[in-house]
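Q: What does the assembled structure look like for these inputs?
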Amino acid sequence: MTATPAFPPLVDAYLADLDRALASADPRERAETVAAVREHAAESLARHGTDNESARRVLDELGPVETIAAEVTPAPAPAAPAGTIEARDVVLAVLTVVLWPLAPVALVWTIVRLRSGVGNRVLQWFTIALSGIITFGGIALLVMHAVNLLG
Amino acid sequence: MVLTQVRKGVVEYCVLACLRSAPAYGLELVERLGTNSSLLTSEGTLYPLLSRLRQQAWVTTTQVPSAAGPPRRYYEITDEGQVALETFTATWSRFTTDVRTTLES
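A:
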């Protein structure tokens, strides 16, 4: 086994450019691609020599870094942050539990806040679920009561 | 432009086909695909594709020391890769027949 030879500056610069060009790629694909291109360059240079002319030929065959970058899978978009917990979100959640007859108001208000993208989304979804159950459960009980009265 | 579109979803199976006979390292795979072939835009574009094939578990990689230079990363087709290649080959055969029939009609 022979150790990886030192690359001509031209090849080092190409590999650094490639790594930068893959900045928005899937991290694993980026690391594997750069490592594999490095090995390809080392193998080619071992065959053809490490002078500048050979280095240029190897890089020509590898192609522009932009062409390689065009083939990679973009990194997955980071999950949207849940948002900061604001006093209004807490009040709405508490309101739903303590003053349950106001659940429909809390439900509408929380939906409006969620759609406008302010406050903490996790707490808002919790309030929506809770107030939704209370609101629609209450409506269902009212309907059942009315049916019993009519019957 | 047409070639770029046609390559999509096809070249990966050509790479798998090149690995059917024996595992190969990157430069060797480029030679099997044909250095002047239209399958790759440039030699470097092979590597993102190989990384995806590895993530799909259609190929595995092994580092093997080389007497002539640095260690080589050998790519080997897996059983899942073989199945995917067989499925593609059957589909491709029917597809190309239909395309040829349509173009020559």
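Residues 79-104 of chain B form the longest helix (26 residues).
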